[in-house]
UniProtKB/TrEMBL annotation:
Keyword Amino-acid biosynthesis included in the entry's annotation: no
Catalytic-site annotation from UniProt: D67
NCBIfam families in UniProt: PRK00055.2-3
Species of origin: Actinomadura keratinilytica
Subunit structure: Homodimer.
EC number: 3.1.26.11
This protein's encoding gene: rnz
Identification of the protein by name: Ribonuclease Z
HAMAP family for the chain: RNase_Z_BN
Residues reported in the UniProt entry to bind Zn(2+) 2: D67, H68, D209, H267
Boundaries of every Metallo-beta-lactamase domain copy: 21-211
Reaction catalysed by this enzyme: Endonucleolytic cleavage of RNA, removing extra 3' nucleotides from tRNA precursor, generating 3' termini of tRNAs. A 3'-hydroxy group is left at the tRNA terminus and a 5'-phosphoryl group is left at the trailer molecule
Cofactor(s) this protein cannot do without: Zn(2+)
Amino acid sequence: MSARDLVVLGSASAVPTRFRNHNGYLLRWDGHGLLFDPGEGTQRQMTLAGVSAHDVTWICVTHFHGDHCLGVPGIVQRIARDGVPHPVHAVFPASGAVYWERLRHATAFVDTAVIDERPVSGDRAEIAAGPFTLTARRLSHPVESYGYRLEEPDGVTMLPAELAARGVRGPLVRRLQQEGRVTTRGGRTVTLEECSVRRPGQKVAFVMDTRLCDAAFELADGVDLLVIESTFLDEDAALAAEYGHLTAGQAGRVAARGGVRRLVLTHFSERYRTDDEPRFAAQAAAAGFTGDIVVAHDLDRVPLPRRRRAPAGGGRADG
């Protein structure tokens, strides 16, 4: 089975600690690897996590504060050094193009031609990305910052009992999937709707540095996995608002309203101690979120929840 999971490469905010590296998140998705916000030290964290430059097919930068992008030079140079042959698409705010250029060519090295730059601008941008769509939405932060949403199209799950009852077997099954309608040897016309249920595509959202805003709620709506900053605890909400960040409770509120299935809290301020960690999860839950909560740690691997499957009679259910 193809892997779909999140590899946490770093979970600190502006200042790394003894236990938390700067940001870095690799979303593995059926042979694609989306590297979000590679902060300082990401290249080494990838080695510790057992992933390589060859696993990276996308680099997505939310904004150009150092803890979200200072790892770009090392990643790009590693891609070049290791001879990665496939395109690596780079998505970043167009307003920060000067910073991207400085990071992209930070030092002398034998360059690579595989980096495909795709700057985004405006309040919303949608990027066709093969098996999924990548949507960028502008957030609320002192510098221009974007959140990202990855979404695959809905599919179908075939129902063997219904196929057998209608005499659809062998090559006819594939034709039914492709064409939506087949005629059996007995002359019966069978439709795809009779023999399948809708399989909702999986969705993941990354919401990094931002205050509460409509875009954060839109990105999180209906996703299976939400990776979201929770820089501060709720008692420090004034600081969060001043610096353009979320509290744990606010992150929980975004997840609750969106019906998120698994919530990953990350980007923690260095002001908090290890024994404060349970409070982040508790405050997210107190905001009304009742799904799975993961307080991220470096080198964690967080699987996507199992696929949802719509029952034959309509509606949605986990499958």
